[in-house]
Amino acid sequence: MSDACILNGHIIDPANNIDEVGNLSITDGKITEVSGKEAFSDLQNTDVYDAEGLIVVPGLIDMHVHLREPGFAHKETIATGTAAAAAGGFTSVACMANTSPVIDAPEKIEQIYAIALQTAKTNVFPFGSITKGLAGEVLTDMRGMRSAGAVGFSDDGVTVMNASLMRDALTLSAELGFPIMVHCEEHNLNAGAVMNLGETSRKLGLIGSPNAAEDIIVARDIMLAEMTGGHLHVLHVSTAGGVELIRQAKKRGVHVTAEACPHHWILTDTEVEKQGTNAKMHPPLRTQTDIDAIIEGLCDGTIDAIATDHAPHAPWEKAQGMVDAPNGIIGLETCLPLVLTYLVRPGHLTLTEAIAKMTTIPANILGIDRGTLSVGAVGDVTVIDVDTKNQVEVTKSRSKSRNTPFTGWELKGWQTVTLREGKRIGMPPSSK
Ligand SMILES: [Zn+2]
Ligand SMILES: [Zn+2]
User: Fold this and answer.
1) Helical H runs in 37-89?
2) Are residues 189 and 312 in the same domain?
3) Which of 11, 122, 136, 322 could form a disulfide with 82 if both were Cys (CB 3.0 to 4.6 A apart)?
4) Strand runs labelled E in 198-245
């Protein structure tokens, strides 16, 4: 007897090259049958989902979120952030270390796992920080945090400006096989910047950050990865130059992977004029030239994964104006519809390619046993209706925060059912 059966769905599992209509069953939290055409004999006490006309994929993985716990419960907690993730079709998230206190020691990794065990809707995989307190001065005990379950290391939010420390981190990465996830902005070039440097920043009289601030650090860290053999993962690529640097590095065989976020391949810096602080993020929204380059990078595999950089902030924090408001937007509930509407529908990516960038590829980068529908794999599954049209209604978000530039956008293609180990964890944001 199964925990759950999903019948007659169009199953897409990029890891196993499955792309066909069939049935899927989950027993004791594990996938026991996939693509079985024959009817299941005993469906009593089983959750049965009719997926006729729907797409069935491995549970989505977001490799870059900020859950804000511990320390910033007014923005988000592990409970609310993972509830938003589940509503968005994600069954696994990897969370950044810039909490308070910073996740910079083995016992703090254990603490995240302990809180997640009690309160999380989805699987939570924590990153540890590269430097103690994100201060950029002393490396953390990465070996110890790795043993405690850290899936990678990042000072996300800030750049490690000391190249010698980055070399040491990447040297350890080469030895132990974890990714170093880098937020690339040269602090001096970026000083005081609240948006992209360009026509709009000049018009608004705001300090802008040039593309070079990002490109310089991408180039530096690629050189250090090349020198050490470590695994570099470039977070939230936002520039055409960054895409090209990563493309050339991959051609030379450097161990570099990269991700891009929906806002960076949909919105330009002109959005700041319309939306104010809901269009303020680091790295900032850039130009159409950068958007075109990121989409090309997603298409040719230069950019491996799609992530949200879900960055909740309370309304009063975002109301402080462009200079003082914190950076970032929420993204967990809008990511899949944005991918389907802006990458798949226009034909930039096939559905299989897009799903791979949100399942098997991030799983491989993080080294986690998720992102596939193989028999015996963990029964994390997402069901998608690619034909449903819905408006983004931020008031219905499961996140504690409301900072999104996509309010009111009509998107086509939404998650309908999210199962974690065969148990339903998420209803789509449109139903409450
Ligand atoms: Zn960042
Ligand atoms: Zn981030």
Assistant:
1) 78-87
2) yes
3) 122
4) 208-209, 231-234
Residue 297 lies in domain = 59-366
pLDDT digits (tens, 9 = 90+) for 73-96: 999 999 999 999 999 999 999 999
Could you list the active site residues? 309
CATH number of domain containing 258: 3.20.20.140
What is the rounded distance in angstroms from the CA atom of residue 182 to the CA atom of residue 232? 7
Q: Do strands 410-420 and 153-154 pair parallel, antiparallel, or not at all (unpaired)?
A: unpaired
CB atoms within 10 A of CB 348: 16
Which ligand is in closest contact with the Cα of 308?
2
Nearest to 129, CA basis, from 78, 167, 162, 95: 95
Tracing tokens 């490690």 back to the chain, one arrives at 160
* Ligand 1 mean position, distance from CA 294 (Å): 17
Taking the centre of ligand 1 as the mean of its atom positions, its distance from the CA of residue 116, in whole angstroms, is: 23
Neighbours of 17 (CB within 10 A): 8
Residue at 432 is within a domain: no
Query: Does residue 132 share a domain with residue 40?
Result: no
Q: Is residue 203 domain-shared with residue 129, that is, in the same domain?
A: yes
Amino acid symbol at 354: A
- Looking at the structure of the chain, the number of domains it has is 2
* Tokens read off for 209: 């950050």
Q: Please state the pTM of the whole predicted model.
A: 0.97
User: What is the tens place of the pLDDT at every residue in 30-74?
Assistant: 999 897 765 566 677 789 999 999 999 999 999 999 999 999 999
Q: Scan for tokens 């970026």, then name that residue.
A: 190
109: helix, strand or coil:
helix
Taking the CA of 282 as reference, the closest ligand is: 1
